[in-house]
Design a protein that fits this description.
By secondary structure, the protein is of the alpha/beta class. The protein has 9 helices and 8 strands. Helix 4 links the parallel strand 3 and strand 4.
């Protein structure tokens, strides 16, 4: 199927209240344009330089979301326009996002990335570490940051029992933190091309789908 056809299919099949993030990282602007013409307005990128180049080239009604690991020295590059940062994975990064948001006169929405899987290579807060941060309350002092929810990447396995367990534990964390953060805490980003249906079953409100829409990525470019 074409990019446009996949966008149309997904938009019609996803339940009401679930946001589709089209993961366009490493794909050319022409591919983003095809998805845009099919009605897609939310795109996920993992490299600040690439995101900024696409932001400069594309219409300004697009929501650009940072889904990959974000180095503190790259926050300034995207602070003026990024719609949502999924990968807020440390107190230090949150402080930098806060400072850069205040510098450009914005409040930047973020998700707290949780290391929920058994894959050691994955990024994110360990649940106990995040518990301590939330209970400590430092986030309350960040006037340039709005914590909108949580994000995770499930265990890389074909065993959907393991994947669903990851997602259910995330939903439990999300529900518990929602009582702390309040009404703005409304986004649970989990699920990709291989497991988004399971993520939705477990309570995801946002799914990040790349290869299903754009095909497999060429990381050599």
């Amino acid at each position: 199927m074409s990019i446009a056809a996949e966008i149309t299919r997904l938009q019609s099949e996803l339940p009401c209240g679930v946001t589709l993030v089209a993961v366009s990282k490493t794909h050319p602007i022409s591919a983003v344009a095809e998805a845009y013409d099919a009605g897609q307005r939310v795109f996920g990128e993992s490299r600040p330089q690439e995101m900024r180049a696409k932001w400069e080239a594309m219409p300004k009604d697009i929501e650009w979301q940072m889904i990959g690991h974000l180095q503190t020295n790259k926050v300034r590059m995207i602070a003026p326009f990024v719609s949502l940062i999924h990968s807020a994975d440390s107190a230090r990064l949150l402080r930098v996002i806060d400072a850069e948001a205040q510098r450009v006169g914005r409040v930047i929405d973020v998700l707290l990335e949780v290391h929920i899987s058994s894959d050691e290579s994955k990024e994110g807060w360990e649940p106990a570490e995040l518990d301590a941060y939330v209970e400590g309350g430092e986030w309350r002092e960040l006037s340039g940051v709005c914590v909108r929810g949580l994000m995770c990447v499930a265990t890389n396995t074909d065993d959907m029992t393991v994947v669903r367990d990851d997602f259910r534990r995330m939903k439990t964390l999300f529900d518990r933190y929602a009582e702390v953060f309040g009404a703005d805490f409304d986004t649970l980003s989990m699920g990709m091309s291989s497991d988004y249906t399971e993520a939705i079953e477990c309570g995801a409100t946002m799914v990040r789908i790349g290869s299903t829409i754009f095909g497999y990525r060429d990381y050599t470019k």
